[in-house]
């Protein structure tokens, strides 16, 4: 599904990712943990194609060279990023936004454009999945949404666009306990054998729900350690210092 | 009762060309749009009796008087522009709305293209008597729809292209006590044409005025709205949207003068300057010493579209410069007990927003289109004419991004 080899990324000559390797196979859930500023969001941005980074290395995504694709082409190919800080877009309603996006994506994937009634059905169904109040659909994208509502809206968009690989960048931060469970259940329902998740998080709690297959620790722009779910438990207990100590 | 075509007065048409004393950029109010420069090489176009480059189309029958001769009370000004209009005028329409009359159906004035080429001037009067209500839609018609060609093809500023026609209108409005007028205008201007419009309004006590203006095109548009609040408790609202593309130059100028007690005025202008194009907003708000308890605000928000925002590696196909914006609020407050505020912003599309939309599968062009429309929507939503709203949305949709 995804194969990252020796990935470097810098902004204004400041190196952030420093030779990162990562492989995700279909059906897997991976978690990335790591201290603040270690480069987790940068990795997610580079994967989604955000401009402004100097990037070296290779990223294969379902046999395509991801770095050759512009952001929308990556979305068409099945990549989705749930932003750590979702952007507010005044003047564009959530529902219209999703209609344009979904039709564009479907069109690129060779699927017919949805009839209005089918779209309505789908949008209701997916909103219910993450228990997003339908009133949010007519509101401008993320405008005035609370932190937790924005995160829920990201998962709603993910459910609408049905990606092959979804990257969740701290989607659990800012969620209350119930919302966290709802989001985790939503993700679990969307799991299939042919899609994968890359979950960036600081907290054990989300991983308790999601049961990741593989846990990575990202420190100073590199994957410092990879293990199974027990690695997350170990981090919870010991923090990152023991790993950082190994770096030097 | 009146039919289509009523409301016009034959005017005395001068047969010798007027010696026009054009306003130039030396005059502060005309700093960005120099009429003398524009008129260079243009001949005066003396109309004739049969030339009536406008018609009035009542949506339904509406009672009004068609005055003849001079209006009850002309609001003539003495500035450079008015003196040109008055020396070169080829006539105009005149409407008189009798006291107490009010109608929900708007009246539509349509200016048709003037031929032959050259410059032409028209002078119109609108008199709304005590307590009468009127909605007037004013628009100009063009032979062809506005250009939709890709913006990068337009290698030149509208101001550097020789004009073939310049059409000028001066509308003088008098609102008597308690009169209410909604003036909804759309000006469309293709390349190599200039459209200059000025409305001078005199408001008596308790009168209400709303002016909504949409100006779009790749030619030159100058729109002046001058308001004199002469009676107490007047209110004036101005709403404006400029969409300049393909090298277009759109200059919106407003001048509101509060002379009396407890006047209200609010202005909200938005402008989109696409690649190679220019928009200007210059709003003068003047509160005289006796105009206590005035409540006024002015807001101008401007969006510049920038070719540099285009995708890296995308080959530009010609000369491109970002849209250019001049926004100039001018507050002259001489009364002490007033509430006046203003704000002007100039910005580009937010790159984070573009990326966010792209990450959901919308193309770079589509993302910009959506965000630009969203910017304009705040004004479009307030336009009180359905067909105008959809026309503006369509025009924005036709802007090409690559
Ligand atoms: N545009 C930028 N300009 C300069 N520095 C940047 C830029 N983007 C990221 N950085 C720096 O790169 C480092 C990694 O940032 P990143 O956002 O990827 O961290 P993170 O691991 O996601 O942290 P957190 O856990 O706090 O979300 C930080 O030191 C950050 O300040
Ligand atoms: Mg982060």
Account of the protein in words:
The complex is a heterodimer of chains A (248) and B (402). Chain A has helices at residues 40-48, 71-76, 94-108, 116-129, 147-161, 177-190, 204-210, 229-238, 241-247, and strands at 2-11, 14-24, 29-33, 54-61, 64-65, 79-82, 165-169, 196-200, 214-219, 222-227. In chain A, the strands form two sheets. Chain A has a six-stranded mixed beta sheet, with helices on both faces. A four-stranded antiparallel beta sheet of chain A has the order 2-1-4-5, covered by helices on one side. Chain A contains nine helices and ten strands. Helices cover 39% and strands 25% of the residues of chain A. Chain A has 248 residues and is an alpha/beta fold. Chain A has a single domain (2-247), classed as P-loop containing nucleotide triphosphate hydrolases (Rossmann fold). By secondary structure, chain B is mostly beta strands. Chain B has helices at 35-39, 80-88, 351-359, 364-380, 386-398; strands spanning 8-9, 54-58, 92-97, 107-111, 118-128, 133-140, 165-175, 180-189, 193-203, 208-217, 220-229, 235-244, 249-258, 264-273, 278-287, 295-304, 324-333, 339-348. In chain B, helix 3 (351-359) packs across helix 4 and helix 4 (364-380) runs antiparallel to helix 5. The longest helix of chain B has 17 residues, at 364-380. Chain B is globular. Mean pLDDT of chain B is 82; it is low at 1-11, 58-77, 150-155 and 311-316. Bound molecules: adenosine-5'-triphosphate and magnesium ion.
Radius of gyration of chain A: 18 Å
Task: Please give the count of helices of chain B.
Answer: 5
CATH class call of chain A: Alpha Beta
Sketch the major β-sheet of chain A: 6 strands, mixed
Within the CATH hierarchy, at the fold level, what is the topology of chain A?
Rossmann fold
**Got a strand count of chain B?**
18
- Secondary structure tally, helices of chain A: 9
Q: List the uncertain runs of chain B.
A: 1-11, 58-77, 150-155, 311-316
The number of domains of chain B = 1
SSE run of chain B: EHEHEEEEEEEEEEEEEEEEHHH
The CATH architecture of chain A is 3-Layer(aba) Sandwich
Give the SSE string of chain A.
EEEHEEHEHHHEHEHEEHH
Radius of gyration based on Cα positions of chain B: 21 Å
Count of beta strands of chain A = 10
User: On the 0-100 scale, what is the average pLDDT of chain B?
Assistant: 82
Low-pLDDT runs of 5+ residues of chain A are none
Strand order of the largest sheet of chain A: 6-7-8-3-9-10
The CATH superfamily name of chain A is: P-loop containing nucleotide triphosphate hydrolases
Q: Quaternary state, please? A: heterodimer
Based on secondary structure, the structural category of chain A is alpha/beta
């Amino acid at each position: 599904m995804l194969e990252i080899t020796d990935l470097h990324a810098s902004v204004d000559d400041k190196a952030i990712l420093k030779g990162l390797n990562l492989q995700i196979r279909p059906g897997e859930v991976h978690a990335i943990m790591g201290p603040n500023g270690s480069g987790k969001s940068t990795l997610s941005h580079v994967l989604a194609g955000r401009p402004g980074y100097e990037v070296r290395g290779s990223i294969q995504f379902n046999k395509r060279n991801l770095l050759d694709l512009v952001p929308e082409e990556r979305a068409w190919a099945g990549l989705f990023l749930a932003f750590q800080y979702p952007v507010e877009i005044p003047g564009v309603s959530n529902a219209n936004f999703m209609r344009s996006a979904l039709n564009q994506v479907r069109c690129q994937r060779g699927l017919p454009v949805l009839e209005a009634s089918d779209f309505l059905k789908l949008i209701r169904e997916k909103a219910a999945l993450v228990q997003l109040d339908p009133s949010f659909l007519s509101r401008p994208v993320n405008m005035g949404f609370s932190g937790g509502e924005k995160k829920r809206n990201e998962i709603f968009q993910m459910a609408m666009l049905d990606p092959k690989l979804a990257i969740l960048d701290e989607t659990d931060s800012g969620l209350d306990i119930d919302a966290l469970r709802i989001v985790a259940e939503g993700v679990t329902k969307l799991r299939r054998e042919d899609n994968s998740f890359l979950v960036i998080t600081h907290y054990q709690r989300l991983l308790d729900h999601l049961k990741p297959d593989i846990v990575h620790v990202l420190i100073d722009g590199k994957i410092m350690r990879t293990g199974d779910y027990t690695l997350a438990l170990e981090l919870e207990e010991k923090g990152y210092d023991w790993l950082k100590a190994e770096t030097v | 009762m009146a039919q289509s075509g009523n409301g016009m007065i034959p005017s005395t048409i001068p047969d010798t060309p007027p010696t026009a004393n054009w306003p130039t950029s030396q005059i502060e109010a005309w700093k960005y749009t120099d009429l003398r420069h524009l008129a260079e090489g243009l001949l005066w176009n003396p109309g004739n009796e049969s030339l009536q480059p406008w018609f009035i189309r009542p949506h339904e029958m509406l009672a009004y008087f068609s005055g003849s001769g001079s209006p009850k009370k002309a609001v003539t000004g003495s500035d450079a522009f008015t003196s040109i209009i008055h020396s070169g005028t080829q006539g105009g329409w005149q409407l008189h709305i009798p006291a107490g009359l009010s109608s929900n159906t708007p009246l539509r004035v349509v200016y048709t293209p003037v031929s032959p080429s050259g410059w032409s001037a028209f002078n119109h009067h609108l008199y709304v008597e005590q307590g009468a209500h009127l909605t007037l839609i004013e628009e100009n018609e063009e032979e062809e729809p506005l250009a939709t060609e890709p913006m990068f093809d337009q290698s030149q500023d509208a101001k550097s292209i020789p004009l073939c026609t310049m059409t000028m209108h001066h509308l003088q409005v008098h609102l008597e006590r308690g009169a209410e007028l909604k003036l909804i205008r759309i000006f469309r201007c293709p390349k190599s044409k200039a459209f200059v419009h000025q409305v001078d309004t005199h408001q008596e006590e308790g009168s209400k005025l709303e002016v909504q203006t949409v100006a779009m095109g790749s030619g030159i548009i100058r729109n002046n709205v001058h308001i004199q609040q002469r009676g107490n408790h007047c209110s004036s609202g101005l709403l404006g949207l400029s969409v300049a593309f393909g090298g277009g130059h759109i200059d919106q100028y407003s001048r509101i003068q509060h002379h009396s007690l407890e006047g209200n005025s609010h202005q909200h202008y938005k402008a989109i300057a696409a690649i190679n194009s220019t928009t200007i907003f210059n709003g003068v708000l003047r509160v005289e010493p006796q105009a206590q308890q005035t409540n006024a605000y002015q807001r101008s928000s401007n969006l510049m579209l920038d070719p540099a925002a285009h995708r890296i590696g995308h080959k530009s196909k010609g000369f491109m410069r970002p849209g250019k914006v001049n926004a100039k609020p001018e507050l002259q407050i001489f009364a002490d007990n007033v509430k006046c505020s203003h704000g002007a912003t100039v910005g580009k599309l937010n790159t984070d927003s573009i990326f966010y939309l792209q990450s959901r599968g919308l193309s770079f062009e589509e993302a910009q289109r959506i965000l630009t429309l969203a910017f304009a929507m705040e004004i479009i939503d307030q336009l009180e004419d359905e067909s105008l709203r959809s026309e503006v949305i369509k025009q924005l949709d036709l802007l090409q991004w690559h």
